[in-house]
Amino acid sequence: MFPNAKCELTYNSIFQLLIAVTLSAQTTDKKVNECTPILFAKYPKIEDLKDADVEDVKKIIKPIGMSNTKSKNIIEIARIIHEKYNDEVPCSEDELLTLPGVGHKTISVVFAEGYKIPAFPVDTHISRIAKRCYLATLKDDVNDIEKKLKKLIDKNMWIQMHHSMIFFGRYFCKAQAPKCNECKLKGKCRIKYK
Fold it and tell me: Does the predicted TM-score (pTM) go above 0.85?
């Protein structure tokens, strides 16, 4: 259904991708894309963001929520990457995990989208699809779901399937008002049809 699905975050570098994904926690890509062009225009270099005024950053990213924490985190991420990694986003899970506000899902997105390293980040859409389509149990958390999907799907397809499942969940099999009557997976879904 979604052969051309791709990352919908707007970015021009792996650093911008990292910041955008960090900001996307508990909000939508659409909201992030409204804030990041302003943020990246005002702070075009990593060095600029590391020296940014936290109150100014907070104002820019306020529409996405959690701006108090997120503004401090992205400034600190910029500082660490500038000072410790010479403005290069590390391609190591252990190193990325030391960055504030960066967890496994963010790292998986940076690997898959930025570095094209096979990864299968699981977000709320993928979690919902996996549970509805019996690819996971209702009790499974995102880590369980990721492990199960990685076993089911060929590693060469992880990145594309990640995007396709997100699009399927975002635009078709929505949390509210899914398009069940048009769905080809009706017989393989936990949702009961009338």
Answer: yes
